[in-house]
Design goal:
single chain, 156 residues, alpha/beta, five-stranded mixed β-sheet, two-stranded antiparallel sheet, elongated
């Protein structure tokens, strides 16, 4: 499933600085994991040690042209080919986009809970069911506020 920056802006309630209709295939929260710059939307998440906004200029130099940024955060020079989707809360925007994407599918969900062993049980279930069912599973142990939306985005 392919989304455009205009569609994403509507889903997350963003102000779109530089109206763009760029097709987005990949969501990025870690600048070190960039794969396809032209099809990537970077979420500038604030963190305890680092703020994703600090990586915008580096990612622009590497070819990324679409960013989700926080209101009232100074932007680099606005360029006609760089799309900034401005929101109040970048993490919430990522979660809203994932929730919207998940609603496009009617796939049952299996939730695994507990203190220990969730990832290994998830992988065992995948091994047991993959030949008979189409399985969507989170990569590694993506079970955080950022990881779950990134996992959901992989559904197609």
């Amino acid at each position: 499933m392919l989304y455009t920056t205009q569609h994403i802006a509507a889903v997350i309630g963003a102000t779109n600085i530089v109206d763009s209709n760029q097709a987005i295939q990949f969501l990025l929260t870690d600048s070190r994991r960039l794969v396809a710059p032209a099809a990537t939307l970077f979420f500038a998440l604030p963190g305890e040690r680092r703020d994703g906004h600090a990586y915008i200029e580096e990612l622009m130099a590497r070819g990324v042209t679409a960013f989700v940024v926080r209101e009232n955060h100074p932007l680099p020079i606005v360029h006609e080919q760089i799309c900034f989707l401005v929101v109040k809360d970048v993490l919430l925007a990522l979660q809203q986009l994932a929730a919207h994407h998940r609603q496009q599918f009617s796939i049952p969900v299996i939730g695994i809970t507990g203190s220990n062993g969730k990832t290994i049980v998830k992988e065992w279930l995948y091994q047991l069911l993959q030949e008979d069912e189409v399985i969507v599973r989170s990569p590694r142990s993506y079970n955080s506020q950022v990881g779950v939306p990134l996992s959901v985005w992989l559904m197609n």
